[in-house]
Amino acid sequence: MDTENYFEQEERLIWSNNNEKVEEQLESCLELQFNFGQELAELRAELEITKQKEDRLLEEVQREIDTAIGPGGAEKFLKSFDQSIARVCSLNECMKSDAKQLNSSLHTVSTLADNISKKVAVLDQAKGRVVECLQLVNDLRDLRTCAEGVQKAMVEKDYDEAAQNIHRFLTLDSAVFRVGDVGAKEPGQSLKHSYEILRTAQTELKTIIEQKFDESLSAADEKSIQRYFKLFPMINDHSTGLRKFGSYLNKKIGQSGDEFYKLMQAGGTDDKRINVLYADTLTLLLEHIARLIETYQPIIDNFYGPDKLLDLIEIIEVEADKQSIRIISAFLMKRQLDEKIRVVDGYMRTAGKCADKIEPRDLDVLLAEITIMHTRTELYWRFLKRRLGEAHRPLSESGEDGPPLSPKAVADSVFMDELSEEELKAAAEKQKLLKKERNKKLDALLNRSELSMKMQEILGKYVLLEQYYMTESVKKGIEMEDVEEGALTTSLLDDVFFIVRKSIRRSITSSSVDCVCAMLNNGCTLLETDFFVHINKIIKHGKSVAEAGPESQRTAFLLALNNMAEAVKFLSTLKQGLKDEFERHLGAVSKNEKHKLDNSVAQLDDLGKKFSQSASIGIGKLVDSAFKPKLKSNADAYLNFNHEISDDEFAEFEVNDPFMANFIAQSDKLIAPFEKVLTEENYNELLGAIMAETGRRLEAVILQLYFNRNGALQLDRETRSLTEYFTNIAGWSIRSKAARLAQIVGLLNLDTLDEAVAYFHDSAAHQGQALTSADLKKFLKLRSDFSTEKINQIKV
pTM of the prediction? Predict the structure, then answer.
């Protein structure tokens, strides 16, 4: 179909449809008897313009089509399109042929790769068997060499050489012993004969080494003892060597323990350290055991394996516990610890009504000795943990009484990258189980030994005694409270915090995190109850300092107020000091224990907030009683002045202030005496409270007055003088206390209501919402030259 004819038909169809719609609209309009003549004329004009645009677009589309097809028309275009399709089909056939050829080549390569892989696997298997055969041949040769060598060494009584041959024999692969005696001509040359010689020699050598070791012990020949001790692992008898050597060390520990105990019973060697005699004796014993372990650890590591050190310590810890408990029992009896605990417990249970009582200072020496004993024990445990490597030492190559690992097994353990994924997973699981077992063993050794449990028991008693010492000392400090002449605080503050700090620091020297946390809790409880209640009772129930009464009551109130404020600083200092002590004495604790300490010391922050809040309440009481009535009467004097003043009056007031100069002088007269009797923190807080109260009083007075423009300017001048006075004596920060008053005065000093609304929004955005929309209208009505009706129409 010709393109031009097609568009002409479409045009006629659209035109006819449009005409029909227009006629229908006209008929409906005529039926309604409305006159739409003008509207119809406009619609026809628009329709004609649209038809002209449509014609132009059709002509442009036709020109573009003719240009694209070019001379020759559609036939030339179709011919070109058919040629392109033919080329695409030809390329598609070529691609299909190449893909089939590539598929065939890949299949051939895959088959060759499979064949090569199989042949390589066969070669690897053959290589492995050849290596095993060579190793087996070497082992067979070593077997005969060991048999000949051990016979010669036993005859010459060279037990070190004999043990070396036995050790080599025990490390041979078990496959050697399954090889038959094919081709053996002489009975003495058979593998069975060599095996029997070595097994017999192993049994005989074990008996001889045990005998020689016992003889060395009897003769106290240290050199021979170490020599034969090193031979036990060579014949795969680790447990016997460790057991006998452990018995030898236990004997040495017992002898030293007896010497230390006798010396302790005699009173020691230094009279100056008689108060810590038992702690020093326990220290000597534990240091002696640590030196023995340190001396013989290299032998254990080199000949038995690092993991065997735990087994040896487990053996000697029995004797160590025995000797330690003996010293601790003597300490408990001589220092009468249980009796003191009975008295203290009874006294605390009856809330001080029990007649029996111990003087706190009599416990000082005892508490110090307990902490020293626990510290020394803790150091000993840390030494053992460090030597045992926190149970992460590498395992020795041999198991308990089991055969040593073969060279092949050793190689497998070294070249872990050659193991399969399953083998690596199995090895990791085995190591995990061994590590768990070792940790369990170490936990039982260090935390469940008799020494550990006994020290935990004594530490529990220490906490009770320390709590009693701290509580009774604080009570005595409260009873003996005194104040030096000219001092702003009483002796109670220094005494109480010295006692609390001393007790907590003493618990830190015990190196027990649980003990430190317990004492921190007790200290905070004591400060929050006895100490705080004593000071707060004076603030809460003290008589007004403004009322007539004894001067001592006024002084007591102000001293209590200063004590409460200074206690906040003391708490901050105590917290920082304790953190430094933690770093010095408890730096090696675990994350969990550090978290415990942080939580415990955080109680001091909460306590500081409570003391600070109580001090603020006390300042409020002081303002209410000593300042509020006089501030009210001084501010009410402002009502006696006219505030709708002329220009001449405004200029005169600049020279001779009628109100504010006197108001400031009266306020300064009230404030000045407190500068010398309050601490700096309390004095600054008092000034802030007075400034806030002054602002409220002046606001109440301003609401009862009316101002013209000059009167508002005079008010601004007066409030600036007041703010400047407080800024000079208290600093710039006190201006925030007068923020609401400043906004009120600012509103009253604007020329128009629009400026007032703008100022209100700007103040709310930059200074905070000190005034509400109701306040805005309420204070603007104080301007006599502003229209009340317009003020009521303000929308914020």
Answer: 0.71
